[in-house]
Amino acid sequence: AFFLADLGAGVCRSALRHLGVVPSTVFISHNHTDHAAELPLVLAVESLQKHRSMRVVAAPEVMLRLKTHRMHEMLSTGLPLEAFAEWMEAPEEEVLRLETEAGELQVTTYKAVHSECCFGARIVHGEIAIGWTADSAFDRSFLDILTSKTHLAVVDAREKSSQEHASFQEIKDYVASKPDVSFLGENQGCQIAIIGYGAASESPSFLEVGIPETAILRPGSVVSFAEEAGCIAAQKTLE
């Protein structure tokens, strides 16, 4: 485990349960509590107590908010923020190359549509490319970027469309309009997986909105990548 996307309330416990460790590189999409709440505590424990080298990656606008507001409580330690982690800015649409325990990781941020300054990302490790919307209202051009030359796109969606989140129907219509995009499990082009829908009773399967069960990610879901007919395909293998 070498890369974690967001660190909201409960994520540390989930990472320890499913991965056995909190990854050393943490990307923060935006400063909302459900995406960044545990950052100060995790950095304090992992860096100061366990003496691990931690790294925080975020777009410059998000990084400023994290340092000014999210990490403010750590000022009481008398230590500079550099004592807690290496802080690496990922400017929008620029490839940031990171050396990790598993080799080079490339992260490119893209502006999402949300009330708080928020960035999704395209993440490349070796031959595998993953797009991630973070929290975003439906934006076709944003999805086009994250599904282009990408094996898997992890997409935030909820029952109803809003200025902060796409709806299940908008994502269904998008997939139907793109011959090179399918839902996870359909093995055609870039495959889309759904997250961010809330409780189990708010999931696409419970609401019967027509999104295949294979495309719905839940806590503990594992997506693996394998080469099939000369192409890399994503598949949900475990929950």
Task: Please describe what this structure looks like.
With 239 residues, this protein is an alpha/beta fold. Helix content is 23%, strand content 31%. The strands form 3 sheets. Strands 5, 6, 7, 8, 9, 10, 11 and 12 form an 8-stranded mixed β-sheet that branches. Strands 1-2-3-4 form a 4-stranded parallel β-sheet. A two-stranded antiparallel ribbon has the order 13-14. The longest helix is centred in the N-terminal third of the chain and has 11 residues. The chain is globular and about 55 Å long. The chain starts with a strand and ends with a strand. The mean pLDDT is 95.
- Percentage of residues in DSSP E strands: 25-35%
Global shape: globular
* Structure annotation, total helices: 7
Q: Report the average pLDDT across residues.
A: 95
Low-confidence stretches: none
What level of helicity do the residues show? 10-25%
Distance between the termini: 17 Å
Number of strand elements: 14
Name the helix and strand elements from N-terminus to C-terminus, one letter apiece.
Answer: EHEHHEHEEEEEHEEHEEHEE
Radius of gyration: 18 Å
**Structural class by SSE content:** alpha/beta
Largest sheet: 8 strands, mixed
